[in-house]
Amino acid sequence: MAVAELTTPTCTKQGLRSSEVFYLSAGTPSFRRLSFRPLRRTHSSRISCSVNQTAQAPVAVQTKDPKSNKPECFGVFCLTYDLKAEEETKSWKKLINVAVSGAAGMISNHLLFKLASGQVFGPDQPVALKLLGSERSFQALEGVAMELEDSLFPLLREVQIGIDPYEVFQDVEWALLIGAKPRGPGMERAELLDVNGQIFAEQGKALNAVASCNVKVIVVGNPCNTNALICLKNAPNIPAKNFHALTRLDENRAKCQLALKAGVFYDKVSNATIWGNHSTTQVPDFLNARINGLPVKEVITDHKWLEEEFTDKVQKRGGVLIKKWGRSSAASTAVSIADAIKSLVTPTPEGDWFSSGVYTDGNPYGIAEGIVFSVPCRSKGDGDYELVKDVIFDDYLLKRITKTEAELLAERRCVAHLIGGGVAFCDLPEDTMLPGEM
Amino acid sequence: MAVAELTTPTCTKQGLRSSEVFYLSAGTPSFRRLSFRPLRRTHSSRISCSVNQTAQAPVAVQTKDPKSNKPECFGVFCLTYDLKAEEETKSWKKLINVAVSGAAGMISNHLLFKLASGQVFGPDQPVALKLLGSERSFQALEGVAMELEDSLFPLLREVQIGIDPYEVFQDVEWALLIGAKPRGPGMERAELLDVNGQIFAEQGKALNAVASCNVKVIVVGNPCNTNALICLKNAPNIPAKNFHALTRLDENRAKCQLALKAGVFYDKVSNATIWGNHSTTQVPDFLNARINGLPVKEVITDHKWLEEEFTDKVQKRGGVLIKKWGRSSAASTAVSIADAIKSLVTPTPEGDWFSSGVYTDGNPYGIAEGIVFSVPCRSKGDGDYELVKDVIFDDYLLKRITKTEAELLAERRCVAHLIGGGVAFCDLPEDTMLPGEM
Questions:
Q1: How far apart are CA A217 and CA B50, in angstroms?
Q2: Rounded to two decimals, what is the model's pTM?
Q3: Which ranges carry the Lactate/malate dehydrogenase N-terminal domain (chains A, B) (predicted)?
Q4: Which of A238, A389, B59, B103 has the fewest CB atoms below 10 angstroms from its CB?
């Protein structure tokens, strides 16, 4: 990574990693990645906190200036190491850089510890965590970093905290965009789309400018499909297919409800798809899902329940939970984000698939292009994925897919000003926010 | 476990597991375990929610009567399975039963998902979670159980929720006692000892009556050392050495502070001990701790820092964190509980040890008997442990150990009425609650 710090890496439309581009073509650097970078910013070179590890002599600890926007290594994570020089870490993979926005929030408070523990990227994958927060939450970010220190995770080799995405996203290979403004009292969905759209436009630009060119992005902050669309449209040098909107919690909930109804344990449910938007127009698919390898409709003969109650059960889960528990479902959301990552870095089991909201250009289903739509995916475990072609449709499923597609097209019109589409025109017919979400 | 449901198992002082006792000597059941069971209670046999797994026909889901004290299987966890009949689970270990009190609290909200994910007990160990809450928190318990459902953890095969420890602790092999009353405004430590002592006396009696005879108990609720003492004294048929007071978060923090000062990564610090009470009299030991295999005092030559600042840094960590983060350190506490369990179920690395608050009878250090005191331990990974004899003392260390020992003896006098020691006499000199804890 030392080279990347000294020079400005190139992103190509092919999405090569900055290090790959750079080590191959360091002689002819292109500055295309800077095209979205606001001119007012001046970024000094990133501070490297690595020290040669010499236990005999105490080393001065890097202190952080809280007024600075620059992310810096935190506490014990400034006292680092040469992973290749140490006997026990020689077999480890190359350090992976993971950015998390909304890092001081409750979902992150669950997720960060999962990422650091090795259960997401694996037991031989050292991790650097880059925490993005706001000015208001900066002290809380320090608190999170302190708790990560106190947890002594062997694989967690770097923690940086910051409030400027152009600094925090530097060289990241994963960006988990959880932070978003919650809907204020009386705020309409159109207004929320605009407020959060601004954030995701800025973060898209920052990713485009400084992240690894093949960065994988998972958008969690609502409205996540259209936020992901805004983000990818503002990052033209990163492959559009690298952007995901999280619908995995919906998929997990759908599997659980099918298991409950069928009287089986949830591990017997496979091939569950969430189609479309992460909103009340989403379509949990019981036509293609399977239980013990059999079509759901053969196992659950109460088709009235499937058509009239199942979707409602999945969608109202968050609302029921917030009533019972008094808090939103941070823990299971974090689990589903971890699941979404694992689905991309481990091969999908034979015959099965997973749902993710992805860019629709070139999709085989006839869904409108140019939106982010949840569909069934398979991965070889290389971070990439392909769309599953082997699915069936009936009139009932198609009708509902058309409705969620129409909503996403309407949302796109609302944010036209943020995606280079001219003047926005917002005609969202109703509030489709999922209960229990903000 | 079917046999245990039909009959009342025996606990022997040797601490055999109920199933072992039972399958070996089912002909001569003893009722000694019932000696602490209040007569007013009448316990119906436990409801078994297991159904033969037949995916073809939907099975009625067990519904729960919220007014009942009985813990029942929750939601999808009622739709269970024969672990031995399924191809993929045939190689799994026998289901382990884990009770968690304070299950609706924030520490549990982190811990339960770790236990369910397999990262604590291992990837081939199916887990049953038994959540103990209060009448007030019952709905929140349901919320937690719902989030566990939605997480689709393959190893999590049973979840039960309840508010009666005599029901929830049935057959448990691990009891993680996190729940405790927080200190109210103006409440003195003596009063807190009494209020929480009542809870832990009751839970000790319940464990004695219904848990597995070799149950391992980790007490987290404060004041945890004396709560653990109360608990074990009320469970005379469970081996006293099975009871632990959690000092692992203190140990983890001590390692982190030593690493920071020495300018090394925390994985280079070993042999860290917390001696004594989980309070401000606790003694983080820098005499026996090592950095890169060398004595700390050889690596950190600033001995003034070691003697005058190190302990303070460890103890004030929770207070600093609560100021930064606005919340107590639930996530890192949960990590340390997971660490404490893993230290008992995996062999301790050669030459290293871990800290735990354990019963002092027969200890090799000359510490007063009959209290729960944190000391260095090693385990073969069988759930049991032995005390480390190979430690050195100097006057400085001994003086501080004497002080924390005196405090624990004073705390014991405060709770004499709860441990069969006659009339309580409370003369605690000062408030020694750790900053940031309740």
A1: 41
A2: 0.87
A3: 97-244
A4: A389
